[in-house]
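Model: Ready when you are.
Researcher: Fold this.
Model:
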Amino acid sequence: MTGRRFRDSARGSVTEELVLWRRLDQPGHEAARLTFHDPFWQLSGMSVFAHAGRPCRLEYLVTCSAAWETLHAKVAGWIGNRWIRLKLSTDAEHRWLLNGKECGDVAGCIDLDLAFSPATNTLPIRRLGLLSGQRAEVTAAWLRFPELALQPLAQAYQHLDGGKYRYEAFSRGFATELDVNPAGLVVRYPDLWLAESPAG
């Protein structure tokens, strides 16, 4: 299910996009909300799913600049009986901190990629603004799941046409085609996530 509410951000109001995904590889759902509060973009959501036979619940809030560069993020919830509370931040030189500890391996990364969610594919898609046929390689600060540690993940996005993108994650030997809506949120992630259709 997706829905949107656009307002004039120049007058200090909100641009909003909502999406509800169903997980395809195991039981689970995720709801996300993309909003613009001048001069920041905020991507928030909650993912509820099964992992290793245990229920998991993770909430997140990612704040980006107007140019879609990640500034800071929070992740909280639980994985089975393990409680999670993470604070991530990055400075103007793209040096990353995770719960106050510097993560040198991801220094220079601009985008945050949450491994448990399709939401953060939106960040490089919006930041790059690729025209049809264009392709770009990026390295994201990837929050692995279930370890929840940051590591660099080399990726590529190619805008195929309209709302279709080819996505590659080189070190994982992974490639797929994503369908996204006009806000840049994924609506179809083959074999993993699908946006629910509105009722009726």
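Researcher: Now this one.
Model:
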Amino acid sequence: MRECFGKDFIQNGELQPAELFDSSLVYEGESVYEVIRLVKGSPVFFHDHMERLASSVRNKNKTLLADESFITESITKLLRSNKIKDINIKIVYNYNQGSQNCIVYFIESVYPSANQYKSGVKGILFSAERKDPESKVIDHKLRSEIARRLINEGAYEVALVNADNLITEGSRSNIFFLRKEILYTAPDNLILKGITRKHILEICRVNSIRVKFECVNADDISGYEAAFMTGTSPMVMPYYCIGDIKFNVKLPLMEELRRLYLLKVEESIRYFRPDY
């Protein structure tokens, strides 16, 4: 799967043809990034992503290469040129030997099918943890190792297990376990705090759904009724299994969380209406 999708990309505010895209602008040096889902041509939770991007830059002691208005203009240029309405867009701030670049481009996006939402997906355990969970940075080596495992085992996502045998998060998602109508998710300081996770937690707060911020031991997952991931592409996706442990994918609470989340998605895209 190629890195840059579509006919154009944006480099430092300028529209460039996709054939000139150089992956070294992303994978060499140090890169801080965000991936945002476009729905009906509008970014979902745009402001939240921009806040997290700025936070990642501060955590890495780097210079903020663009503000929200600059990124808004870049996205609008890209949409006007490519006419794509439903896809993921990637924003990368790359710092490499004194060179700094802000890159905005589409990435080829594979979204879950209706059947996957209905039947759930397969997860596997993977021993690893983020070096800096508070920052969204590219770790090409870890990403490649995970991709190989997922392909070899026919799985959708990994559940990362740290040195204490605790499940923290997925490679590109956050994880929730469910038991007796109580949600369990890792404490904020151990994970990258996902945007989807943030809104699920807000839904729980508003609807008096109990949440415990504690990691689940990898040896104890059979004691939970259900598990689901949250993320930009999967949104709210149930697991039918993690490893050999099977889960219930039909619990009404999971379906209600997804329904309420989709309502928040629709609300968020009304605040970004580019002219293209």
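Researcher: Key takeaway?
Model: The longest strand covers residues 30-39.
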